Amino acid sequence: MAQALSAQVSWSVRIGSDASANRATGFKECNNICFNNKSWISTPLGLKAKNVQLKYQFKVQSTSVQQAGKSKVSVTPLELENGKEPLLNLYKPKEPYTATIVSVERIVGPKAPGETCHIVIDHGGNVPYWEGQSYGVIPPGENPKKPGTPNTVRLYSIASTRYGDSFDGKTTSLCVRRAVYYDPETGKEDPSKKGICSNFLCDSKPGDKIKITGPSGKIMLLPEDPKATHIMIATGTGVAPFRGYLRRMFMEAVPTYHFGGLAWLFLGVANTDSLLYDDEFDSYLRDYPDNFRYDKALSRQEKNKSGGKMYVQDKIEEYSDEIFKLLDSGAHIYFCGLKGMMPGIQTTLKRVAEERGENWDEKLSQLKKNKQWHVEVY
Fold first, then answer.
1. Is 300 annotated as a binding residue?
2. What pLDDT, in 10s, does the model give residues 94-124?
3. CB-based contact 246:284 (threshold 8 Å)
4. Which residue of 99, 220, 267, 314 is most buried, as measured by CB atoms within 10 A?
5. Catalytic residue numbers?
C-alpha cells in the first residue's frame, strides 16, 4: 500500500439550528449537512477559528469496545505527540527491525469468503508511527524470482493508533486477508500460488519473529485540526487506517487531541460475516452520534437501486448531495482498499457531478490541489 503526500487541514464545527449560532461562526454563506437533528458546517480550507472467534472479540475489543464510551482510555508515552512530522523509514529492507508476534486472531465469521486476521506485533517502542502510515513486512525465505535473495517487502496499512492496541506505544496492529489462489478450471486451491507474506502472517504464532521496515507514507495522515471533517471509504482490509483514526478520535484520552469534528465511514464487504471491527464502530455510533456516521455496503446481501450488487460507490451515490456539500466546504475524503474499487467510484462521482452541473475533472483537480483527496489502493 504505497503512500506519498501529506494531508491538509480543514475545519468543521457543529452548530445549532438558530440564526444566532450561524452568525457566531462569522460565515455569510455555508452548506449545512444534517443528521441526528444536528447541523454541520465544514469550513473552507485556510480559515482559522461476529459469530466465530469470540475469544478474539473479548481479547482485542476488551481494550476497545468495552472502553470506547465516554470514559476514554489513558495512553502512554505522551511524548509520541511531540513530533511535528512523522518519522519515515527508520528501518529499511537491508536492515529491518526484528519484532515479535503478540497475537493472530481470525476476525471474520464462518460465512465470510476467505480469512482475515488481526495481527498484533510488539516493536518495543522502537518503530514509532502515526495513524495512516504503513509498515513493510519481509516474509522469511528466498525470493522465488531471484534465488539467493530475501523475499521482497510487502506494505501493510497500520490498523492501530500510535499507542497500539495495548495503549503503551509498544505494539502495532495489521489487518491481513489470507491470499489464496484457486485454479479457474479445477476450482481447487493451488498452494504454489498462495500469497507468501499474507499466509506467513496469518499462520504466525505468538512469540514468532517478524522482520519489519518503515514506517512509511504521508498521504493518509490525519489533519492536525481535531475539528476537521473526514469521509472514509474502504473495501475489506482497506479499513485498517480508518480503525486507527477512529480509535484516536473516540477511544483514547490524548490531552492534546479532542476530536470535535465529523467522521463518516463507508465500508464495503461481501456480507455481515465479513464486517471488520464492526462492534468497535457500532460502539462509536452509539456513544458519539453527533460526530460519527457509519454506512455499510454488503455486496452479496444487499441490492442497489438498479437491482445489482450493493457496492460502496452505490452508497456514495445515495448520499452524494451531502458528500459533495461537505467536500465543497473543505472536507477530506479518503479511499483505501483494492485498486479495483476506484474505477467504479470515480465513474459514480463523475456522473453525480455532471447531474449537479459540475465538471468532475476540474473538481477532482481542485480537491487534489487543496490536499483534500487521499488515495491508498493496492
1. yes
2. 999 999 999 999 999 999 999 999 999 999 9
3. yes
4. 220
5. 156-157, 336, 376, 378
